[in-house]
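ok so for the tutorial part 2 we go from a plain amino acid sequence to predicted structure tokens. step 1 is just haveing the sequence, like this:
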Amino acid sequence: MIEWLLVPVAYLLGSISSAIIVCRVMGLPDPRAEGSRNPGATNVMRIGGKKAAAITLVGDMLKGLIPVMVAQFIAVDPLILSAVVLAAFIGHLYPIFFGFVGGKGVATSFGVLLGANWMVGLAVLLSWVAVYKLFKISSLSALVAATLAPAYVYLIMGMQPLVYVAALIAVILIWRHKTNIRRLLAGEES
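step 2 — the prediction. this is what the tokens look like for a chain of 190 residues:
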């Protein structure tokens, strides 16, 4: 039963906002008040450049990857693993340390899926890269990769609770990108 403690720990780790911390340390404006007002790597790139964005991206990915890798290391039950995956992701979206105002969750979702299974993570990453190479639109790449993730989990890991969690993450990512989707449909997404 002690393994269930990983769930709140994953949420708390997910609640660490890499974007806000990176912007504070680098003397940049608060990403919640500038650009798209989203505390994520894409907005940090707009307001602070590639270096700040890269640090943010790695930080957001690691806060998803680390708790899932710990869960994998101690060989938790697939249900607990799925709960850890979801908790880290939700922590990013609704961080307790930053007034429950978080990012869209793309990098953190990649981190949790990579931690759950490296082949799933690689498949998601390759999907993102392929769509980005074709269209040069980050949000479209994220939406396609997220939509494919449950299928990758099923094909690589079989039917288990993580398939449902990956599907839920995909739905949440689509919902969090609703303004991007409107701009995509209008041909206005950069």
